[in-house]
Each structure stands twice: as structure tokens, then as C-alpha cells.
């Protein structure tokens, strides 16, 4: 169990997590987690060993989200204090804070719950309690444009620049999972969460594209305490594929591994559960029971 023997008895919620991109000769499977105590923790996912931490410079700096550039050299984190922190990952040192100055388009007015770099690392998309999603120019620190409406309450934004798409997961029971244009901020599609209950959804806290092709979207949240995977069909519309139900607590974060075969889900009970996605090519369709997404580890994050 991650955190066992660390001297910490209290298990705090996982604000956000990412598999660290492998670069610069790094071979370990590292899971990087942001805690509500403001600490960024680097864990070896196989051994469960805590390798390093980045601690906050101020108290009450709880972090709620983080994301890596594709080359793994930079890490962005955000949370209660509204400014976005950009770190040099190798040095584990703060580079700068993104918060626009002297602009007509301002930064977020409430807590930041989600961050996502595009493939180039030059654009960063953020989502907040203030009902806006913002697209940032990383180099200048300026806001390029806004998307109004999504109720972001967790790690519920992802970007696929090659297809010019953003996904948002809103913390509401209707029209929760949506696809937008990255370039123009226009709504492309609202994805049906539950085919058996049209118009009804879990209240989403996390949503992600897969790492390779944007063929899959994974999302999870509260209410039903479940995670679902959606697959892009031949008509380019996303439809329900499979899922995990009856988790013991609400899900606060979700992420695909680099090869898309593993899915990490961070829950509000302080446990990170790692599932394996199993392809069933012979089945014409998938259902909840078809996922066969067995838990291969359950790690307690201290």
C-alpha cells in the first residue's frame, strides 16, 4: 500500500493523478499524485515506494489537479489559489505561475479543478468552479479564449489537438459529458452516459481521452460511484462501451496508462485502484459485465 510505514495515519483524498511520461532514461512506472494538502508525490506504482515530493510554499495551498507536457519535462498544477503553477519536473522546481495581467479576459475566479496540455505543450486548458473552461498560451501566460457552461468539479477536461477536440465532464445529472472544438470553443457532441436511462448521468468529476488515438473516453464521478468507458464508433460519435460499477466511494480522478491497457482511478476513500482493460473482440457489443476490468492493485495514498 502506498504510504504504508510513512508515519502518516490520515488518508486524504487524491486531488489529481497522472502517469509520468517516460523520458530521459526513466524506466520506472511512476504515478504522480496531487493531494489536498498541497503536496505533489512521486510513487513507484510497482513497488509502492514514495520516491520524491514537492511541498507547497504556503499553507492552505491544496492542489486539486495536475498535468504533464507530452515530453514529461514540465508539470502544471492548480487548485484553491486559482493561479496555475508550472514546474520543471526534473528539478522539481517552480518555473512560473499563469495568471493574466492587464487583460480584458481574466483568469479563473474560483478553484481550478482540471488542467490539460495539448500535444505541443504550448497550450494549456483549465476548468474551474466558475463555470468556464479557458485555453491558455503557455509562453505568454495569456488566455486565448473561453468556453462557458461546463460545471467542472474535478479532473474532467482533456484535449486532443490532432482532432481539434476538448472533452468536459460536468458535475450535473444531465448533459454531463461533452465534446467541444479546441479552436473555436463550439459544442460538437453531448455523449449519452447511460443508454438505459437517456438524459440521466452520474455527476462527473473526471474525464480523459486515451493516450494514443482518442478512440476511448473514460469518465467517473459521484452519485453512482462508477466509471464508464466510451468508444468512438464508425460514425465518429462516442457510445457507451463498458464500465465499473459499485465502487465504495465517489471517484475523484481517472487516467489511462501510456499503452491504454491500464486505468487508474483515484477515489475519495484515499485509495487509488488500478484496473486492466480487456479487449473482447468476439463480442459485437460491450456491457458493464463485459469490461472484465479486474483490479490489479489497490494503493492507499497518504
Structure description:
The chain is an all-beta fold and about 300 residues long. About 0% of the residues lie in helices and about 45% in strands. It has strands spanning about 15-20, 30-35, 40-45, 50-55, 65-70, 75-80, 85-90, 95-100, 110-115, 125-130, 130-135, 140-150, 155-160, 165-170, 175-180, 185-190, 205-210, 215-220, 225-230, 240-245, 250-255, 260-265, 270-275, 295-300. A four-stranded antiparallel sheet has the order 1-2-3-4, with no helix packed on it. A four-stranded antiparallel sheet has the order 5-6-7-8, with no helix packed on it. The radius of gyration is 18 Å and the shape is globular. The N and C termini lie close together (about 10 Å). Residues about 280-300 have low confidence and may be disordered.
Order of helices and strands: EEEEEEEEEEEEEEEEEEEEEEEE
Task: Note the total helix count.
Answer: 0
Q: What is the distance, rounded to the nearest whole angstrom, between the alpha carbons of the first and last residues?
A: 9 Å
User: What general form does the structure show?
Assistant: globular
Please describe the biggest sheet, giving its number of strands, its sense, and whether it closes into a barrel: 4 strands, antiparallel
Strand content: over 45%
Average pLDDT reading: 80
Percentage of residues in helical conformation: under 10%
Pick out the low-confidence regions: 281-302
